[in-house]
Every structure is written in structure tokens, then in C-alpha cells.
Amino acid sequence: QCDWSSDVCSSDLNILHAVDDIRSLSELIHLLQKERGLTAGQQLGHDETLHSLFLKQRKMTESRWAELGTAELLQDQEFAHGFPARLTAMRQRIDSGAAHWEEIREFYTSTVKILLELMLKNMVSLGYSHDISYELQSLSSLANSRENLGLIRATLNRAYQQGQFPMQALTYLSRQYANFTDNLTIFEATSKA
Asked: What is the 3-class SS of the chain, one letter each residue?
């Protein structure tokens, strides 16, 4: 049994809260990735089913943000204070047709990148104090690999839907694939350690 007033138990409780925050942050990242993908599809057509999924995804993202917005790991983060307004502004541009795909992709991708870096920063602080750094580095590499695969999938789907594969998309795809293989190599090396 643990005396929760002791330093050890208090530290364990802090770790549990941090892990929960990191898990929620990971879920938010995944929801933003899905919203990015559905936005790409929404921008290319007016399928009723896709539109319904698109709107549902937005609500899921908002719900997760509302839950996470007060998390300790987001306190004192400049990103967290301005994110809801930036997301709303981008969605308004998307809905009005004023945003082009590259701008949309960059918005979501840079947001995911910031959140991945924030997640890694919090994982590293836990890892150094509790000898779980390999596992956390492995998880970080896996999260980055997932982001790279999402961007590869989005690029391929968009090219397929447009019926063309411009050189710019091929270059972007090559860069994301290289990043994916790098992250996968790190994941494989650290998950075996």
C-alpha cells in the first residue's frame, strides 16, 4: 500500500497523469490526421457520406481538444492558447473554398508536428527519470512513422482522385517515404533494446 503523501507515491501519481496526458495528446494527433485526410476528400467532391464523416470528425477533434485543453502538459504553451482560433480560421477558409490543398496540408501537418514535439518533450522528461527512455523513443518514432504514412496516403489519394500525379507530389511523396523509413528504423532499433 502506498502513502500518497510520500515522494515516491506522489512521483508515481505524476507519472500516471503525464502518461494519460500523452495518451490524450496522441489521440488528438490521430484525430487531426483523420480530419486532414477527410478535408482533402471533401475538397475534391461533394459525396454526402464523406461530408457526414467530415463533419463528425471535426466534432470529434473539438471534443478531444476540449478534454485536453486544460491538461498540464499544455499549460504555458503558446501553441495551446492560440490553437482553437487558428483551427476555426482554417476551417472557415476551407468551408468558403478560399484555402488550397497545400495550405490545408501545411496547417494540419505543422500542427501535428508541434504536438508530436510536445509529446516527445513530455516523454523524454519521464524517460530520464524512470529508465524507460528506449520505450518512449520507440513510441515517438512510431508516432512519427504514422504521420509520414498518413501524408503518403493523403498524397496518393489526392493524386488518384485528381487523375494525375504531378512532379511536386512525387517529390513530396519521396521525402515522406524517406522520413518514414528513418523513423521505422529508429522504432525497430529502440523497440528491441
From this structure: CCCCCCHHHHHHHHHHHHHHHHHHHHHHHHHHHHHHHHHHHHHHCCCHHHHHHHHHHHHHHHHHHHHHCCCHHHCCCHHHHHHHHHHHHHHHHHHHCCCCHHHHHHHHHHHHHHHHHHHHHHHHHHHHHHCCHHHHHHHHHHHHHHHHHHHHHHHHHHHHHHCCCCHHHHHHHHHHHHHHHHHHHHHHHHHCC
